[in-house]
Amino acid sequence: MSLEAKVMPAVAAVVSFIKEQATTDLANFSNVKDNALHSLTKDQLQSVCRLVEQSIQSNFIRSSNQIVSVLTEIETKAAKDSLGRKKK
User: Fold this and answer.
1) What is the pTM of this model?
2) Predicted confidence pLDDT, tens digits, the chain (88 residues)
3) How far is the C-alpha of 69 from the C-alpha of 87, rounded, in Å?
């Protein structure tokens, strides 16, 4: 199993947690009086939460190639190191 196959599901789980926590934090903050979110209706707050979740997901997808690139670099280096040890 490749390093990418092992790591990316864990990274996706972290991003999922971030999305869920952002929604929870926004909902909790909307219950506090004297802030900008307090005046939002439930539907407006749900729209904001969806927008935040979509933004997090979209930007994760756009930037995940950076993680994959590092993982590929690590695997390549490990393979070269392994070959070097076998030659000795």
Assistant:
1) 0.79
2) 889 999 999 999 999 999 999 999 999 989 888 888 888 999 999 999 999 999 999 999 999 999 999 999 999 999 998 877 766 5
3) 27
